[in-house]
Amino acid sequence: MISDSEIDLEEILGRSINPDYGAVVAFIGVVRADPGVLGMEVEAYDEAALEELKRIKEEAIARFGLSFVDVVHRKGRLLLGEVIVAVVCASSHRKEAFQACEYVIDELKRRVPMWKKELTEEGGRWVKGDA
Amino acid sequence: MRIKIRAFASFREILGKEMMVEIESGSNVSDLINHLCEIKPDLRRALYSDTGELRDYFIIMLNRRRLNMPEDLGAALSDNDEVAIFPPVAGG
Known about the structure:
By secondary structure, chain A is of the alpha+beta class.
């Protein structure tokens, strides 16, 4: 999902802890305090982004036999240290959970129509995606 | 026919978030781009190099399906299509 309010990590992780899954792996992306950066603005093409996220999750389930996968991405204005994205994958064993988590975040960065603008004192600069 | 234009990130700063444009029936994606460049000259500078070649630093979606550029410049448009234009994605 795409959220314009703070991501509740406890809630997502809570849902992923289950006696049926032996391993839970999470990737948490955070607004980094690079020199001159005061915060981050995240923009999304909501409808297309949600469709692509759904496809990526389905691919991860099919490829790695996941029992649970959830992705929450923030949009709007974020402060330094706030969570931009959380990916949580649960599987019977750790190997598949690690692989799936990496797959989901890599595909998200490559395919999901969202953009980040680093906010600086001079205004802002769009983070470059791969052409 | 009427086409809904949606723009994101640096392209939103040029085109605005959303607008409806009226173009001739039978137009394709290339016709639409030309039309938009006429309305918003800054778009031409974003899409084309100084030598007039189409840059590869933009993506177009037609009804939320990504087009391949420049192969799909000739893709036909229909009334009420949604065309989105944006730079390469950079989420996560």
